[in-house]
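Tokenise the fold.
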Amino acid sequence: MSQVEKEHIIETFSFHLGKVLDKSVRQQSIDMFANVDKEMASRIALDIGVNPPSTSHVPNEDSSPILSMANTIYSPKTRKIAVII
């Protein structure tokens, strides 16, 4: 994913988890996110006021350009158009 997309994901999770009233639920969510990416989980934890995760994520160096919207090919063939008469 592009850096902008990563920032958007962090902001979105921070917003939604910040609305959770139970601090233990927020902490459990952060611990779960650490399985995906420890840096992301740590940044979200700082935003929502819980402890950063103590575990680390499973190393994975595989990436796919298909996951990023920055690599989407925009052309007339990929667009749907509607006309209201």
